[in-house]
Amino acid sequence: MAAVNRLLPGSEGLPLVGETLDFAKNVFAFIGRRRARHGDVFRTHILGSPTVFIAGPKHTATWLDPTKIQRAGALPGNLLALFGGDADIVPLLDGEVHAQRKRCLLAAFSPEAIAAYLPGLESRMEALLAKWLENGEGPVTAELKTLAIESLAESVMGLKPGGPELTRLLAENAILAKAFTALPINLPGTAFAKGLQARDRILALLEGVVQRHIDSPPPDGLSRILAAAKVAGAPLDAKTAAREMHHFLLAGMIVYAELAATLRVLHEHPQVRERLRAEVLAHAPSGPVSPARLRAMPYLAQVVDEVKRTCPNVPMSFGRAKTDIDIAGCTIPRGTLVMMAVYESNLATVFTAPEKFDPERFSPERDERKRAPDAFAPQGAGELTGHKCAGFDFATVMMQLFAVLALRTATWDLPEQDLSIKWVVPPEHRSGLVVRWAKAKQVG
After folding, report:
1. How confident is the model over 140-153, as pLDDT tens digits?
2. Running DSSP on this structure, what letter comes out for residue 10?
3. Distance separating alpha carbons of residues 396 and 382, to the nearest angstrom
4. pLDDT of 199-211, one tens digit each?
5. At residue 407, what are phi and psi to the nearest 5 degrees?
6. 361 contacts 352 by C-beta, under 8 angstroms
7. Burial 266-294 (b: 16+ CB within 10 A, else e)
8. Which domains are delineated in the chain?
9. pTM score > 0.90 for this model?
């Protein structure tokens, strides 16, 4: 394969390894430093391949153009193995095959489906908040991870928290997660080998879950997906559907980082917290939180969108140049690995003071999203029917619901602790984010 055009700014790094070692230390910092040095389009050599990163809404149209970027063959082998070892999952499909599969998967996240999930989500979050209030103080990160996986698994697959299948999934996913940041060495005893073994157990469990849904479909997201696929004339077999559910769990788990970020920013920005609390108490002071109640709180939507924009949960998305691509006055050769820098794109200068947490940037008067197409793309750019995360709306509603329940139930602060970031994917607070809770004063 031809090398990346030398006119493109960047570096090839060391012989053989390129810049992989620096990349592996801290993906976010790697991208951020090079973007600051070279601009929104730069070349590197990582994971054994010449690679180009692109960032910012100015170049999003290139990223979304199916004649220029393909997803097939873009995911590195170690990550593909952990995602199931088969490229027949929606993030790695192109063209009509992708479009048809995506339409089926979106059946699990329609407005009607999400509305049906809300009571279960609310019950689970209320129980967790009650536990935190009873304990008074402690780290929340691990329990937010559990909340994220349990919420998706119950909503989409009907798996009950505390049940044997979901308990096994939580344990196996904890093993699998360590493999994503381990050296991809498949030798006995290594974290990567243990991750592959956990993947096999996860897929076997999920195949059983899918087969039950095929035989006797309950009213949940997976049944909606299977029904949509059947209507489309492309029914999903148990193995394929299980890999998609595995992908859902891996992708959906990252919402825990945004829930943690919500707690932190509302502690650090008391004026935002109190304005949001007032809106919550005006529109949803008690009782079930319906979609209509959430829609009645515009400031809540602004705050959640700003948390999404500023939370560093996903560093990049993978693609490959389908043809020679002219960009920024240079050429990316066909076949080159191309990565969209997701987090860096949300810090683009199209936003006023992008490093600042400012929910007002999404107010009707300012709405900085309108300054450029796809300026706001925390879970991928474009339409939901494209390569944007299928769970975008589900994650939004989950974050909104969590904020509403927390603000009307409790007050909190962050005691002295190490709030530095451990730059895994998604990043975590080294302290586990210790929160001190107190019961909110009742109004009325």
Report:
1. 999 999 999 999 99
2. B
3. 16
4. 999 999 999 999 9
5. -70, -35
6. yes
7. bbebeebbeebbebbbebbeeeebeeebb
8. 20-439 (1.10.630.10)
9. yes
